[in-house]
Amino acid sequence: MEVVTTIEEMSKISEELKKKNKTVGFVPTMGALHMGHINLCIRSKQTADITIMSVFVNPTQFAPHEDFNKYPRDIKKDIELAKKYNVDYIFAPTVEEMYPDGFSTNIFISGVADLFEGAKRPGHFNGVALVVAKLFNIVNPDYSFFGQKDYQQVVVIKKMVSELNFRTKIVLEPIARLESGLAMSSRNVYLTETEKINASNIYKVMLETKRLIEDGLRTRKTINETLVNKLSEISDLKIDYAVAALSKDLSEPEIFENKDEIIILMAAYVGKTRLIDNMLIQLN
Q1: What is the pLDDT of residue 65?
Q2: Could you confirm whether 37 is annotated as catalytic?
């Protein structure tokens, strides 16, 4: 495995791979790797000839009051884990490499980027879109692998890929969970053991709501109220949002119809740690 730190070198490697007719799978991450990230790498290894992982904590997607400076970083551990799972290249640029002095370009995505997570974190998805667009241009992947846990992010990126004509196929990998049901997240390191137990109840609430929907609950407002009421019973949890929407575009019909695929999305603070989670539900 090779670790690359400059845009020039990474672009050159990608160009050479394409000349050799190698397909490239790309796994963009902010490091602090866990099995959710590794599952993306495994999927990439099954799909493409070469797997490239980026490790870059992107400042443009963090608001000034958010946790950019304390976001978990352990590049040595990340490299060891990626090597264990046969990642071919790690692209680990510095902030100065990605955003040199005088950098002034932005990407603005409206509509789906303004909902839910976007409403709670204004400008977040524009920062995500900017770094992902840069990474796509640098790596030029045939396939790009994202985790379902950041579902709204994937919807935003798919929109950008379609509208800006990027030539990469977006592949969605299911959420990786601990045995307790807690979604794997780099931010889980912030949780105390008690908070981890409390946070694991989020999954149980989503399963209960899923069963109600599958048993015939179809009114969006009632589903939302059910989610909020059940989440409110979890100790030391403060809800940011908890909603149901259509998975394809996150639109919010009053009544869900048969054959719809629903996504229930939530964000909440457990103690001081903000967690997100979701669940897909296919209606018959």
Answers
A1: 87
A2: yes
